[in-house]
């Protein structure tokens, strides 16, 4: 398949065929009605509005109750799934109303799924490694055996249980938002759209004091959090487009949460200023995420051409 480079560096090849390439490296794409740019933006705006409104119910429950319960977590994290379902009811786009087909349900190549699980260990590890190296926080005094067992147990439980919650989000973010945005614009803007929508969606919980640390100023938390999630969205978006599978987002999301919220915190003996630098709300985490964004941005030419594909997968 002959390719040329567009102004963003993304590949600008001809229409991607709805089959595997001879190398098996280009994802299959769905033969679906290609809507106009205006109608696609309307569907994206509708999806975001419904998702925000529906999740507001459960975020309100969490803020009022002073904590995120299992019910509010499930309701909130599955709100993007509700958003895409209702959007498809309103705008079927040539499908049966309410259909969830064409969102990238296919597994794709296993290497992309494994990469999604392992990637957070690297960028979260960079942030925590920095606080250890600079003496901001110490390393746990637990023995190697205890550490290994703890990591494996948390990883197994976190990936499996976390995937149930993450699926509700990623059906919307990875299944719908990323491929729809990529029809209209290039990789950089697609990743920024996903990252900003995803970040802002969390704001009520952060402002309400029930998500993340409260040990640093609110403005600082919002900035670091937004940079972190927007930057890692370059990885989410690249893996979705490259693999054709929304499952990359499910595993990456679940792994992101377990490494940020459990594995590395349990390896760290916190100091007085640790929270300024790690978690999703710290400066080192934001810096490590930016490195991830730069890496995937430099690989954008490996993606199928923007505007030439429907939602990959089946």
Question: What key phrases describe this protein's structure?
Answer:
mainly alpha, two-stranded antiparallel ribbon, 9 helices, disordered N terminus, disordered C terminus
How is this structure best described in words?
The protein has helices spanning 37-65, 70-77, 79-90, 110-133, 144-184, 187-207, 218-243, 247-266, 283-298; strands spanning 138-139, 268-269. The chain contains nine helices and two strands; from the N terminus they run ααααβααααβα. The longest helix is centred in the middle third of the chain and has 41 residues, at 144-184. It starts with 36 loop residues before the first helix and ends in a 16-residue tail after the last helix. It is globular and about 60 Å long. Mean pLDDT is 87; it is low at 1-31 and 310-314. With 314 residues, the chain is mainly α. The chain has a two-stranded antiparallel ribbon with strand order 1-2. The chain has a domain at 103-302.
| Radius of gyration of CA atoms, rounded to a whole number | 20 Å
Averaging pLDDT over every residue, what do you get?
87
Q: State the share of residues found in helices, binned by percent.
A: 55-70%
The best one-word shape is: globular
Q: Main sheet: which strands, in order across? A: 1-2
Q: Helix and strand string, N-terminal first?
A: HHHHEHHHHEH
The description of the largest β-sheet is: 2 strands, antiparallel
Strand content: under 5%
List low-pLDDT spans: 1-31, 310-314
**E-strand count:** 2
Count of DSSP-assigned helices: 9
Distance between the termini: 22 Å
């Amino acid at each position: 398949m002959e390719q040329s480079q567009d102004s963003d560096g993304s590949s600008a090849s001809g229409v991607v065929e709805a089959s595997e390439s001879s190398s098996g490296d280009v994802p299959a794409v769905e033969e679906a009605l290609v809507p106009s740019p205006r109608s696609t933006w309307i569907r994206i705006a509708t999806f975001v509005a419904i998702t925000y409104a529906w999740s507001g119910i459960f975020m309100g429950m969490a803020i009022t109750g002073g904590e995120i319960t299992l019910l509010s977590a499930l309701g909130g994290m599955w709100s993007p799934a509700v958003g895409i379902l209702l959007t498809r009811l309103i705008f079927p786009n040539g499908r049966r109303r309410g259909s969830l087909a064409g969102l990238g349900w296919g597994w794709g190549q296993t290497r992309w799924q494994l990469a999604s699980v392992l990637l957070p260990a690297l960028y979260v590890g960079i942030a925590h490694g920095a606080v250890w190296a600079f003496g901001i926080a110490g390393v746990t005094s637990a023995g190697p055996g205890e550490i290994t067992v703890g990591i494996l147990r948390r990883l197994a439980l976190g990936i499996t249980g976390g995937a149930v919650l993450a699926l509700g989000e990623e059906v919307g973010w990875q299944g719908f938002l990323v491929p729809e945005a990529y029809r209209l614009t290039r990789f950089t803007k697609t990743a920024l759209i996903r990252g900003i929508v995803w970040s802002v969606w969390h704001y009520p919980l952060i402002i309400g004091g029930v998500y993340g640390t409260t040990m640093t100023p609110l403005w600082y938390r919002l900035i670091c959090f937004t940079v972190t999630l927007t930057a890692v969205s370059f990885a989410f978006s690249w893996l979705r487009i490259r693999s054709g599978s929304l499952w990359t987002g499910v595993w990456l999301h679940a792994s992101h949460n377990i490494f940020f919220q459990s594995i590395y915190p349990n390896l760290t003996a916190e100091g007085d200023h640790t929270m300024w630098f790690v978690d999703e709300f710290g400066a080192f985490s934001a810096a490590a995420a930016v490195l991830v964004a730069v890496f995937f941005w430099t690989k954008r030419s490996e993606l199928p051409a923007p505007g030439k594909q429907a939602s990959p997968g089946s």
